[in-house]
Write a structure and sequence with these properties.
about 60% helix; 2 domains; single chain; alpha+beta
Length: about 375
C-alpha cells in the first residue's frame, strides 16, 4: 500500500479513519435510537416488556442496519475528515509538498475497498445470524406468529428427465419442509416442445425428506382412468430443504456465504431467485459503493478553503450522495420487479458514480 509508506500518507489515512469513526458513531447512534423507538412502538405497545428487552432487540438488528448505512458513513466520514484538513489549510501544505489529488484520495479509496470486503464477508453473516435471532426473540416476546407468507398458496416447478412437474399447495407449514394439500402435475414434452399433462397426484400432505417428497393420503389421476388411491408414496425431487425454506425469507436475512448455494439450489429447483441474486450482487458491489461514496466526498472537498465556497461544495457532495442512493434504490426496485437484470440493477449506480467522480477529480487536477 504505497499511500501509507510516507509519514504524510499515514497521517492522512489516520485523519480519514477518525472521520469515518465519528460518522459511524453519529449514524449508528441515530439509527439505534430510531430503531429503539420503533421496537417500543411495535413490540412495547402489544406486550409488557422491559426497556432492557427492547434494547436487546435493537442491538440484534444493529449490524444489518449499520451495513445498510455504510455508504453514508463513508460519505460523511471522508467529507468530515477532508473538510477539516482543508479548513486548517493542511491540504494546501500537502499540495505544496508535492501531494497530488490522487495521493490524497488514495487512502480513502483503499480504506473503503478493505472495509467493503470486511462488511460483506464478516459483518453481513453476523448481521444475518443476529437478525434471525431477533425475529425468534421478538416472536417469543409477543407470542405472535409472523409467518403470514407461509399461509399463502405455494407454486413450485421442477424439471424432470422427460418433462417437468408443477406442484401446487395450499400452504407451506411452519417447519418449512411440509406442504399442505399438495397437487403434483406431471407433464411430458412432445417432440414439438408442447407440454402434455400425463398424470396428477393429490395428497393430504407432502414432507420433504432427503431428496424425496413423502406423500400421505395420495390419490393418482390419469386421463381416461379412474382415480387410484395409493396412500403413502415417495416421489424423487431435486428441491432441497434450504431452497424451500429460503423462498419464504427476506434476502436480507441470508448470509453472504449462503447466497451462492441458495441461488444455485433455487434455480435448479425451478424457484425464483431474482431477489437473492440481486442481494448477492449488491453485497459484491459494496466495496465499489463505498469507494464511490468516498470519491464523491473527496471531489466535494478538494477545492481549497481559501478560494471560498468550500462549505457549499461539501454540502453539494452530501446532496449528491443522497441522489446516488435514491437512484440506486430505484434500480434495485426495478431489479426486484424483473425489469432490470440483477447484475445491471446492482452495479450500474456505483460504477457510473465512481467514473463520474474520477472524471471530475481528473479535470480539476490535470485541467
Amino acid at each position: 500500500m504505497i499511500p501509507f509508506r510516507s509519514r504524510l500518507g499515514r497521517y492522512l489515512a489516520l485523519q480519514i479513519l477518525f472521520g469515518i469513526f465519528v460518522a459511524a458513531s453519529v449514524v449508528s447512534t441515530i439509527i439505534l435510537l430510531v430503531d429503539f423507538v420503533e421496537q417500543s412502538r411495535s413490540v412495547g405497545t402489544r406486550v409488557d416488556v422491559s426497556a432492557f428487552d427492547l434494547l436487546v432487540l435493537t442491538l440484534m438488528r444493529a449490524p444489518l442496519l449499520v451495513e445498510e448505512t455504510l455508504p453514508f458513513i463513508f460519505l460523511f466520514g471522508v467529507l468530515f475528515a477532508l473538510f477539516r484538513l482543508n479548513r486548517r489549510s493542511e491540504l494546501v501544505v500537502m499540495r505544496a509538498s508535492g501531494f497530488s489529488a490522487w495521493r490524497i484520495v488514495a487512502p480513502a479509496v483503499i480504506i473503503a475497498f478493505i472495509s467493503g470486503i470486511l462488511a460483506a464477508t464478516l459483518l453481513n453473516p453476523i448481521g444475518s445470524a443476529l437478525n434471525a435471532e431477533f425475529e425468534a426473540r421478538r416472536d417469543a416476546l409477543t407470542q405472535v406468529r409472523t409467518d403470514a407468507p407461509q399461509a399463502q398458496p405455494v407454486w413450485l416447478r421442477e424439471t424432470t428427465s422427460d418433462g417437468f412437474v408443477v406442484i401446487a399447495a395450499g400452504q407451506l407449514e411452519e417447519n418449512a419442509r411440509e406442504l399442505a394439500s399438495p397437487v403434483f402435475h406431471f407433464y411430458t414434452e412432445s417432440e414439438a416442445g408442447r407440454p402434455n399433462l400425463d398424470r396428477r397426484i393429490s395428497a393430504d400432505s407432502a414432507q420433504l425428506i432427503a431428496g424425496f417428497w413423502a406423500l400421505t393420503g395420495a390419490v393418482e389421476l390419469s386421463p381416461g382412468i379412474e382415480p387410484i388411491e395409493i396412500g403413502e408414496v415417495s416421489l424423487p425431487t431435486t428441491i432441497d430443504q434450504q431452497s424451500l425454506f429460503e423462498r419464504i425469507r427476506s434476502p436480507r436475512g441470508v448470509s453472504f456465504w449462503n447466497l451462492p448455494g441458495l441461488i444455485a439450489s433455487a434455480e435448479s429447483s425451478g424457484l425464483a431467485a431474482e431477489r437473492f441474486e440481486l442481494r448477492w450482487q449488491g453485497l459484491l458491489t459494496l466495496p465499489l459503493t463505498l469507494i464511490a461514496a468516498s470519491l464523491i466526498a473527496a471531489a466535494a472537498t478538494l477545492r481549497l478553503y481559501r478560494l471560498g465556497g468550500a462549505a457549499a461544495f461539501a454540502l453539494t457532495g452530501g446532496a449528491a450522495g443522497f441522489l446516488v442512493y435514491f437512484v440506486q434504490e430505484v434500480l434495485h426496485t426495478l431489479g426486484e420487479n424483473g425489469t432490470l437484470p440483477p447484475l445491471s440493477a446492482a452495479w450500474a449506480a456505483p460504477l457510473i458514480t465512481t467514473l463520474l467522480a474520477l472524471a471530475y477529480i481528473a479535470s480539476t487536477e490535470d485541467g
